[in-house]
Amino acid sequence: MFAVVDVETTGGYADKHRVIEVGIAISDGERIVERYNQLINPERSIPRHITQLTNIRPEDVQDAPTFKEVASQIYDLLQGNVFVAHNVNFDYSFIKRELDEAGYTWQAKKLCTVKLTRAIVPGLKRYSLGNLAEHFDIVNPSPHRALADAETAADILHRLFEIDKDAIDRTLNQRNGVSQLPMNLDPEVFHNLPETPGVYYMKDEAGNNLYIGKAINIKQRISQHFTGTSGSKRRQRWIREIFNIETVETGSEALALLHEDHEIRHYWPPYNAAQKHPVAKWGVVSYKDRKDTYRFAVQRAEKRVDVLAHFYSYTSAQQYLAEAVKEYKLDPRLSGLGWEGDVSREDHQSNAAKWLSEVSSESISAVLIYPGPTHNEIGFVHIEEGRYAGIGTALKGATTEDMLEKKWHAHESPTAQQILGSLLRSEDVDIQSI
């Protein structure tokens, strides 16, 4: 079954705007079998240009229910059906955001009538809803109103089924990865994967972890695993052994990176190789020579944690050191760099001490704040005297003490410290000192 959906909204972005009307036409592929239409109180003003476009005025929604109040009805209509819309990602993003806000976990297969029509009926000048309605001789009684637009999109879907049903079936399978899924994995497990940051666990028939990975978009990343072209015996054996996939949503890539490192080191899955055989990393180190002069250098730091900053490449480490030399007016000759400088020894010593004081590992105790897995939560990374000390999630507004009681785990590893260093160098990190 197909849930053909149209929403009218206060603007064009789901993270900033709200739904003001929902229209749903449930279709079996040949005809509409159920309809749903509801004005929604967005709990905010409706811009004038939206009223001009939709004819929905603020007074029309003043006494309407909020989305949360009708979320259960909408969820029930959508659950288990293919989500169809004209420019599907727009409508899907709004419905997904509103259901999340209402406390409903929901994912669905998606089908876009714009892309479908381009594939099945190529060569049209425009593929807007109005132009396609005209092309197929479909009458839309109320353009830019949710149910009328949803019914029009449903009628377009029906015409496309009449023209090339096989093409639609192929599109559904390809777009949702069905044709490439492991033979022992239930397709519904894949279709229900979240499209959010987190960590995923590929498991064998007995529930043991075969592979653990992280992703900004879990479903998209797992799909990439299954659509690869490698025919190696190792990969084919791995694919055959996958019976289930479990996930932990983290809300941010930062927490996903650190949680992945912990889980791999805890379980050591047979198909994870990176942490078992780590590639040599680089670090910026400081020391004093026989004249008690500060010196700096880039050195191998694979198993060292007593460095100023960790890096994944020698070039990045050298660039970091060069920027510090310029910013703090250090002597490049005493920093392992290949150019002359005019900084006196006294100034170099004073400036080096200042820089070391600012980056001293013993001076940093804080939590780094990130988005949480739900809109009511935050994620955090705990730093204790410059060392990685754990991650977790907590409700928004929680005190630092409450946050630290919610820590998932803490572990010590060169990879975790390298990740922490990268996070601290990020320009948009939110640091709360302890």
Task: Spell out the key features of this protein.
434 residues; 39% helix; alpha+beta; elongated; Nucleotidyltransferase, domain 5; GIY-YIG endonuclease; 5-stranded antiparallel β-sheet
Structural account:
The chain has 4 domains: 2-176, Ribonuclease H-like superfamily/Ribonuclease H (Nucleotidyltransferase, domain 5), CATH 3.30.420.10; 187-267, GIY-YIG endonuclease (3-Layer(aba) Sandwich); 282-359, no CATH class; 366-433, no CATH class. 39% of the residues lie in helices and 23% in strands. It is built from 15 helices and 16 strands. Helix 5 packs across helix 7 (146-175) and helix 11 (253-267) runs antiparallel to helix 15 (414-425). Residues 195-273 form the GIY-YIG domain. InterPro entries: DnaQ, GIY-YIG_endonuc, GIY-YIG_endonuc_sf, GIY-YIG_UvrC_Cho, Ribonucl_H, RNaseH-like_sf, RNaseH_sf.
